[in-house]
Amino acid sequence: MLEEEEEVAGAAPRSGARAAVEPGVGAGRAPGSGLGQAAPSPLCNWQAAQCSVRERFAFLFNNELLSDVHFAVGKGPGAQRLPAHRFVLAVGSAVFDAMFNGGMATSSAEVELPDVEPAAFLALLRFLYSDEVQIGPETVMTTLYTAKKYAVPALEAHCVEFLTKHLRADNAFMLLTQARLFDEPQLANLCLDTIDRNITDAITAEGFTDVDLDTLCAVLERDTLSIREIRLFAGVVRWAEAECQRQRLPPTPRNKQKVLGKAVGLVRFPLMTIEEFAAGPAQSGILSDREVVNLFLHFTLNPKPRVEYIDRPRSCLRGKECSINRFQQVECRWGYSGTSDKIRFSVTRRVSIIGFGLYGSIHGPTDYQVNVQIIENDNATIGQNDTGFCCDGSANTFRVMFKEPVEILPNIVYTACATLKGPDSHYGTKGLRKVLYESPSTGINTSFVFFNVLGNNNGTSVEDGQIPEIIFYT
To answer: Residue-wise over 5-29: b if at least 16 C-beta within 10 A, else e?
Structure first.
């Protein structure tokens, strides 16, 4: 939620709050005259106590003195009747100018505004009379609406500035909805940037499930979300459950699919691992049986059959690409028989791994088929890709990339896995147990520590084997 109330005050003294209770109090006027009582006599010379034009107009804010129009603002028990001055309003707003002076001008002494909140209208009047901005978390959106309704762009700008200052991950979706509703592209872009960087926190915030479907889709379309697709899908399901409740529908898989509509097609299921897909979307009932089968075929077959879902990675990376090589020497002849090469590792700082560098053929230019994976705690596959690469017969490494960045947290042991189909290749020797990467721009060190994998791993170890290179972003 937004934080405490904030004021942006002009040079005029704070008279608005008092004037609402004791309008017209000033030098030469007996205190205690209430709203609706007779205006004081000119003999009171209230003007002499106000030292500038600004102060004199600020004195007239919410004051019966000299008022020539009243507004019945709001509806129900909270409605208020507020005095105003046609000239002041017309000077500050083209809408009021047309209302009082245009060809369709009203001559009525009272104008009804049932769609405007009294607190927001008072904020608008205060600004028109004194340039004083008084907005808070509870009134900023209604004040923005009122400023737009009466074409007061300076007050609009103050509202947007207030919202921007208080923008956080936990209210970014709520503010994005409002920014789209009020056509505030600058605020909307700031909200989207915040969501990109903090999407995990944003979709778990209370206000996320309250957004409308178009806003949800506007976020799901983005290539810049920094989140694993399976976590994004979980947030989408949570939104669908809330929408079913709003529409008074049982939260069945069929109804969730119905309320999500086009949003389902914006989830990038091909970016998930087959394990993530099988444990989540495949059992959710949100996808049809045909869609589930097609996606399983996409995960398991090569070449991959076409699916209707986007398989483009979300470009959520920031920073410079880095890599480390764990071997000091390259030798010849490493064979493959369907067994995976594996090496365990941990890091000292959070990184995002985007791929491996692998050795290629000793027999000249060759194509390889390869499955690469990163496994956490020996059981959960958190990144994978079935792909291929071409090598030129040299002892260089060749890039094999994941579908999306794989977040690697410090002091957790992961397993890097590569299953190659192809002829004998080069391999690395004189391996290092610890490889230090020092960023040339920041000087910050990131250490990779390697461990042997127990069991059948095609011979790869800390000392020898495949998977020489890890490509990552810090």
So the answer is: ebeeeeebeebbeebbebbbbbeeb
pLDDT digits (tens, 9 = 90+) for 29-61: 333 333 344 444 444 788 888 888 889 899 999
| Spatial CA neighbour of 226 closest among 201, 196, 204 | 196
Look up the pTM and report it.
0.61
Helices and strands: H and E segment counts in the chain: 16, 17
Amino acid at 101: N
Nearest CA-CA partner of 163 in 139, 146, 183? 139
> What is the pLDDT, as a whole number, of residue 4?
46
Q: Which CATH architecture has domain 6-165?
A: 2-Layer Sandwich (3.30)
Residue 18 and residue 130: Cα distance in Å, rounded? 14
Task: State both tokens at 392.
Answer: 């030129």
Domain positions in the chain: 6-165, 169-300, 321-473
Fold for domain 321-473? Answer: Jelly Rolls (2.60.120)
- Whether 126 contacts 23, CB under 8 Å: no
